[in-house]
């Protein structure tokens, strides 16, 4: 099975900072990569699919890139409402494995 | 309203069994594959199991294989997870999740239930 890793596991940044989270697959997955945001006490929310396509309604400060084994999620200007844990997920075949998550908070 | 509602969680002793249900509404349930995803307290998301729209294809995470059984009843718009030989490490909130497209069964998830908590403890 393909394993997913994320780095860092947590980060603290100031409002307005550019934040980058990395996700790596143990084998190539083309662009079959989604990103989710989970705020404390809430259910996961789809942010990005196909590695770089923004889900409808998601603010444009979120962006994704990558293909193959290496992917990034970028928040161009961190906002207080972005405090959450972010997960990547590979799809298009089972198991649809999630990464371990990256917790983002405000410095 | 398009929604998923899980039920059936609770406190169970190690070695015990529990059956979770997920009631779907507001969409054509029989057209979509479905999944169970769990989240242990303070931990990340773990995909647990997949079932195709007609139940022809089923997959499990290695951590639950041989102990959990996924099933569905399209006439009742319901998804199930039978959990046997439960362990402390199965303690988690269990979510049912639906992919965005009925044409791509192994797709990313755009619809999640609110989850049901399973606690395995003596």
Overview of the structural elements:
Chain A has 107 residues and is mainly beta. Chain A is built from no helices and 10 strands. In chain A, the strands form 2 sheets. Chain A has a 6-stranded mixed β-sheet, with no helix packed on it. A 4-stranded antiparallel β-sheet of chain A has the order 1-3-8-7, with no helix packed on it. In chain A, strand 7 and strand 8 form a beta hairpin. The radius of gyration of chain A is 13 Å and the shape is globular. The relative contact order of chain A is 0.34. The mean pLDDT of chain A is 97. Chain B is mainly β. Chain B is built from no helices and 11 strands. In chain B, the strands form 2 sheets. In chain B, strands 2, 4, 5, 6, 9, 10 and 11 form a 7-stranded mixed β-sheet that branches. In chain B, a hairpin with a 5-residue loop joins strand 4 and strand 5. Chain B is globular, with a radius of gyration of 14 Å. The interface between A and B is medium-sized, with 23 and 23 residues.
Briefly characterize the structure:
The complex is a heterodimer of chains A (107) and B (122). Chain A is mostly beta strands and 107 residues long.
Tell how many strands the DSSP assignment of chain A holds.
10
Roughly how much helix do the residues of chain A carry, as a percent range?
Answer: under 10%
Please count the beta strands of chain B (DSSP E, at least 2 residues each).
11
Strands in their spatial order, largest beta sheet of chain A: 2-10-9-4-5-6
The largest chain-to-chain contact, stated as pair and per-chain residue counts, equals: A-B, 23 and 23 residues
Order of helices and strands of chain B: EEEEEEEEEEE
- Give the overall pLDDT of chain B as a whole number: 97
SSE order of chain A in H/E notation? EEEEEEEEEE
Main sheet specs of chain B: 7 strands, mixed
């Amino acid at each position: 099975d393909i394993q997913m890793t994320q780095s860092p596991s947590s980060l603290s940044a100031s409002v307005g900072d550019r934040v980058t989270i990395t996700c790596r697959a143990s084998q190539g997955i083309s662009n079959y990569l989604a990103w989710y945001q989970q705020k404390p006490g809430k259910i996961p929310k789809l942010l990005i699919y196909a590695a770089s396509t923004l889900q409808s309604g998601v603010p444009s400060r979120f962006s994704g890139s990558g293909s193959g084994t290496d992917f990034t999620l970028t928040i161009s200007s961190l906002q207080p409402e972005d405090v959450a844990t972010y997960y990547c997920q590979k799809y298009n075949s089972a198991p649809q494995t999630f990464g371990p998550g990256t917790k983002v908070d405000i410095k | 309203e398009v929604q998923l509602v899980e039920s059936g969680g609770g406190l169970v002793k190690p070695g015990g069994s529990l059956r979770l249900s997920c009631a779907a509404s507001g969409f054509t349930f029989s057209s979509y594959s479905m999944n169970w995803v769990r989240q242990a307290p303070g931990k990340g998301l773990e995909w647990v199991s997949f079932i195709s729209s007609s139940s022809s294809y089923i997959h499990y995470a290695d951590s639950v294989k041989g102990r959990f059984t996924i099933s569905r009843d399209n006439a009742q718009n319901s998804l199930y997870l039978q959990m046997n030989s439960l362990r402390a490490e199965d303690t988690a909130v269990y979510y049912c999740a639906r992919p965005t497209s009925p044409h791509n069964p192994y797709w990313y998830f755009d619809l999640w239930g609110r989850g049901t908590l399973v606690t395995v403890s003596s």
